[in-house]
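Shape matters. Shown next:

___
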Amino acid sequence: MEGKSLTILVISALLMLTLLAGCAPSQTGETEVQEEQEAQEQSDMLMSGEEFDRITKCLDEQVPEIWNEWSAYVEDISEGGAYLYESMAGYSPKDVYRDYEKTEYLGKYYLVYVGEMFEDHSVNLAYFYVSENCDEVIWSDNVQGKDSEYPVLYLDEWRNSDYYPKLDK
């Protein structure tokens, strides 16, 4: 009798596994989609040092005042307590438009912050968009928001605007 009970138990377990296996493809398909989405999100969060260097090199070449003037200014006014840094907001390029109504599409750009790094906090000084292929940089008005005429300015417009920082000690 014990042998029959064990056999019935084993057959029941095998039938249960077979039934569960029949459900597996849809669950596996959903899991694969979810895993792909998670992998894409993780790739958005990761960027090679070479790619970051390529993007910031473009910014530094087109806005040389960042390291030629701003860096020394930050160190001087903070008496060595802060230094200039560049950072990125996300690692995937975003769609950028010239106006708030999104009537003039400019392309895909990486958002780069330039700021002061202190021991216990940081302060963003300027925001720039660097084009996906690193051939153009535009300034971004992430502070004024809808109070400004345009969310972005071409560099020549920015340098001739009130938004351009005047480095007075």
